[in-house]
Amino acid sequence: MTQPPSYYPFIRDMLMDRSGLVVTPEKVYLLETRLLPVAHHYGFKDIGEMISELKSRHNESLAVAVTEAMNTHESLFFRDITPFSLFKDILLPEILERRKNQKKFRIWCAACSSGQEPYSIAMVLNEVSERLVGWQPEIIATDISNSVLARAAEGRYSQFEMQRGLPVAKLIKHFTQENECWRINSNIRDMVQFSQLNLLDHKYSLGDFDIIFCRNVLIYFDLATKTKVMSKMNKCLVDDGVLFLGSSESTIGITKDFWPVKAGHGVYKHTDGLPSLAEP
Hints:
The N and C termini lie far apart (about 50 Å). α2 packs antiparallel against α4 (about 60-70). This protein folds into two domains: about 10-70, Chemotaxis Receptor Methyltransferase Cher, domain 1; about 80-270, 3-Layer(aba) Sandwich (Rossmann fold), CATH 3.40.50.150. Strands 6-2-1-7-8-10-9 form a seven-stranded mixed beta sheet. The protein is built from eleven helices and ten strands. It is an alpha/beta fold.
């Protein structure tokens, strides 16, 4: 294994403190590929010189740029289609029954990256719009990175991004082509509220949610950080709410606040929550 550069301990600790990201010695190759463009953008000859700047004085814009560059912003439409099928066919009817007096429900997409996940949810809701007449659904999408949030709010995607998981019928219905890119139509875009949030923040001031999507996020955290994030999400989820994690993620050994629902991998409810129609 290649010896980590001398600045590795500093950048490792900085990323852990600011975003919870764990960069092991085996992943040091990412430092060169992701941070060198940042160094050049800020006028440094190499990464070492940039790190020296961060060590010598507080430079918040540079620290933010480094943190954003190192965090993975991988996303695609209808990623691992099962959660969206469960949401549409099982959980949404359940919510409509339980919230029929309030006629409102809230969904949170944590670490939403460039917006494909919340827009996928919005498309699902649009397809059942006749059942939502008089309802007030909310989709809140958050991410640590202001730059990817700006891109998400714009709703403009390349042809390559459109081909990753998005059915052709949904492309034709919900997007408009602009030269070589595609922009999501305003009726879908307006269904999502984007906001900056760091999952390491001491407290989430977002209110309560009926469904939380926090998929393929925990895999980047160490155990202590996973535990803290799950504890805070537990407080944001209503008693009969549902939490979606990635299909390869689990709460086992992290928290006892959630237990898995048999309807699908990565679906969780409060340990002491109400029975759910999602359970066979």
